[in-house]
Amino acid sequence: MRIQDELKTLQSKADFPVEFLPVARVRETSDLSSITDLQPADLFLVYAAGGRMDIFDTLNKMGKNMIFFCRHKSGPVYLWYEIISPKFLRQRTDKLAVSGIDEDDVVIDNQYEVLWRLRALRGLKNTLNTKIIAIGGPGAWVQPKDVVPNLVRDRFKFDIRTVSYDELGKLIIEARADKSVVSRAKSRADEYLKDTKINLETKLQFVENCFVFEDVLVRIMEKFDCRAITINSCMGTIMPLCETSACLTLSLLNDAGYLAFCESDFVAIPSGILLAHISGKPVFLNDPTYPHDGLITLAHCTAPRRMDGKKLEPARVLTHFESDYGAAPKVEMRIGQTVTNIMPDFAFTRNVGLLGKIVDNPFLDICRSQIDISFECDSKLVAEQMPGFHWITVYGDYIKESAYALKKIGIGFENLV
Hints:
Layout: H1 2-13, E1 43-47, H2 53-60, E2 65-70, H3 79-89, E3 106-108, H4 111-127, E4 131-135, H5 147-155, E5 159-163, H6 165-177, H7 179-193, E6 198-200, H8 204-224, E7 228-231, H9 234-242, H10 247-255, E8 259-262, H11 269-279, E9 284-288, E10 295-300, E11 315-320, E12 325-331, E13 338-344, E14 350-360, E15 369-374, H12 379-385, E16 391-395, H13 399-407, E17 412-415
Parallel strand pairs: 1-2, 2-3, 4-5, 4-7, 6-11, 7-8, 14-17
Antiparallel strand pairs: 9-10, 9-16, 10-15, 11-12, 13-14, 13-16, 14-15
């Protein structure tokens, strides 16, 4: 009864969907055969009060994630609080000896420690096997062709579907010839610009064309039954076809709950999708600058406005920076907001995490949405350790969840503190 009550409390506090199956009492390995819902469960939460070690071994062979909960001060003290490290994790040796389980999977007393692990594993489950549309094919920032997309398929099990520019061009032409699509786009653009937190500083037609383009991209995702999309070579292909830039369109899609990224950079996109699923919020794929004096500027032209997952931040709608064409949001992100920054490496061996705080929304001659973030660690350390190129930024602190989830698929994590 106590465990059931604790699980009900956990469920009520969770900011993500979670279902706990009925608690089952197990003393011997043979007792597992009577539990009918082991196979459909996503993970096992083991209250390690007693029982034989071969119970854990048998559960682990089922290939699911496991979290062990032991009582100390919350009492009564559990047997495995004393012996889970030498007897199970290290298997009576001096080194970790269990496949897929380590010290991070053991929780003592603290229910919150269970909750954030569940959040991480839920995010990972929803990320693995993601189906994503790559307009113009998958890419990776200045990396050899196909190397990174194949790593993504291997590590994250992504199903990457390519839509050619020719196919996209035909869909855009059809959409722009459809009076109902154009009328709806103009109406939606008008409604969008009525927001008192929006300032229009580019041509209205560019904004209207962005809404037409959004209609096209949503239809493509519906055709492939997915909610993730990315666009390669925006300036060279999308602008002539759409007579606008893709920036505002991608921002709109992220605000609507889709996962939309520019540049088709599959170095960063998997970590972006993971962080979005962990946090339940849109993420900002961005270009980092050079860290100095405990500060770094992050910028890109496709930032979401619904950064907290609920409210739309104020924004100026300008042209895309490099082309001075189309429509791109300069989102004024919340000053004082804590943000998680994830830096994926090119080789898919490690991600680097940096917790920061937004201190300014500058307007430099770089990509339109810009934030200065402050951080606590040494600036030279950040400069030395930052890998890859694009960063992923999200409102809130999800460093622990990111590290825990990535380790489950063999990607290391370094937290810069």
